[in-house]
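We modelled each protein-ligand pair independently. The example shown here corresponds to the zinc ion entry; the chain sequence is given first, followed by the ligand as SMILES.
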Amino acid sequence: MKTAMFYGEKDIRVEEMPDPIPAPGEVLVQIKSAGICGSDLHNYRGNRPRTGDIPWRQGHELAGEVVGLGDGVSKLAVGQRVAIEAKHLLGCGHCRDCKTGSYHICETRGIRNGVRQASYGFSELDVVVQENARLIPDHISYDGAALLDCYAVSVHAAHISPAGPDDTVVILGAGTIGITMGQIAKAFGAGRVIMVSTRREPLQVALQMNATDEIVVTSKIDPVEGVMALTNGDGGAVVYETVGGNDQLIAQCMTMSRRGGDVCIIGSFTQPQQVPTDLGMQRELSLKWSNSYSSFNGIGEAQTALELMSRGLLDVSGIITHHYPIDDIKEGFSVADDKRNSGAIKVIITP
Ligand SMILES: [Zn+2]
Ligand SMILES: [Zn+2]
């Protein structure tokens, strides 16, 4: 089969390798859609040196068709369409966090029997444990199913920092996580959403997709002033940070928070952050980090996302802007990397 091999930063090569063989309890999946995630771009941009093996493979937002079964698989059959919860989220299954369902913070997350686990969506075939493959109804496309990973990230953040009907939510960033966060916050009952981005175009998409009620374009107005003007100087009850990167955005989120508010950090930062402690004390803010997803009250957060999508509550139409076959994955990454010029929100590889 073909697979994308990552040799570091922009060196991505499509190579042939033997088809994977499903272990007991695993299924073999022909990948139909795999999204390029912001986290896939950190190394590509040179912001996060690789610590593991080189080359490596990746692609954790994936969906496809079951084409083979390992021994003991009883829950799935060949030909079924599935969304996949990526293997790097597998917990050990027996520690305190796994036992309470919070396997996303398992100390040995992604390691089973001493072997590092990951999903390889940028490949023609991949294997997954049957529990992590969820059947999708016919009206959900493979592209939509690949986005369930992003929606589940947002479901988790909404569980960590919930917002009610009287609350104004502020979302920093209008990328895939910003847009999915807005839709999930609304589906969970948030009163009003304000989305903040440097660029107008993705904010316009977010408005069309009912991911936000109001927008702040920071090339036109200071982000904090923009949010304060829309909230009578009050600020957001919950500020979801979805950008990360190099800038001092945690301080910015705190400055646009309401007294007693939450700052929920989903974005992944590549520089240490300065925290204005006086402001945090004055307003009694809570800083919370939201890392991937797992389960909440015994229900998988990806399952919750799938149910909301099945009920038609999550419009995915505008999020996916580009498709590339695996042979052109290099171009896909360069388009995803340069959103300002390409207009990309989510780039999908179709192996
Ligand atoms: Zn991701
Ligand atoms: Zn564990």
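Residues 37, 39, 60-61, 149 surround zinc ion (ligand 1) (CB under 6 Å).
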